[in-house]
Amino acid sequence: DPAIAPYRMAVDVTGQAAGPLAADDAQILWSGLLMGGVTPTGAVAKSWAFQPNATSADPYDPVSGEWGDEVTGDQFAYIGGIIDQLQLTFPQDLGPIQIQADYRYAAVEYPHTRQDLSVDTNPAWLYGADTALYINDTAGSIGITRMVDTMHDASITIASNTDVKRFSNGSNSNFNVDGYGRGARTLESTFNFAKSTQALQEFADARD
Length: 208
Hints:
By secondary structure, this protein is mainly beta. It is about 10% helix and about 30% strand. The chain is built from two helices and nine strands, in the order E-H-E-E-E-E-E-E-E-E-H. The chain has helices at about 25-35, 195-205, and strands at about 15-20, 65-70, 75-90, 100-105, 105-110, 150-160, 165, 180, 185-195. The longest helix has 11 residues, at about 25-35. It is globular and about 75 Å long. The N and C termini lie far apart (about 70 Å). The mean pLDDT is about 90.
């Protein structure tokens, strides 16, 4: 039978990060998902205020990732990464918040020499026990009414619906992603409530 040489196409480079959420990693996730260019405030304890625009596209803050086997040197570098979808799970055992971040990258390099990394062996975890839920439906009153002895666990999923842009620019050596566009962002939340007075009232209000 005749054999035909293979041909190239654009690759879909993705990756996933999952596990407990540490305080130092939270702002990296939000900048990769929501918007880049946010300057923290505070001298020692830093705070980031992420406020995505409703009528204009926010800047991206791409990251790189490294995967591979240090022993064999079989390593890849993923370039120009953003988060396409992020799920936060607040466990009923009140342990650290669990995350699943779905990354999308513009390009991959192989072979790659891994850079030296410094890993925090004693991170400050963000716990479900430290989480508080506020529910308000009156303008100007958001963040006023805290749900007490009500929420057992919860999950929040934010999807970016990213528009991946590739262009025919007269070069068959470039099959990488040329840019990203922000799509319609979606948010899905689920909560497991006790039959508290507050929970029953919220259920009644939702039915009205």
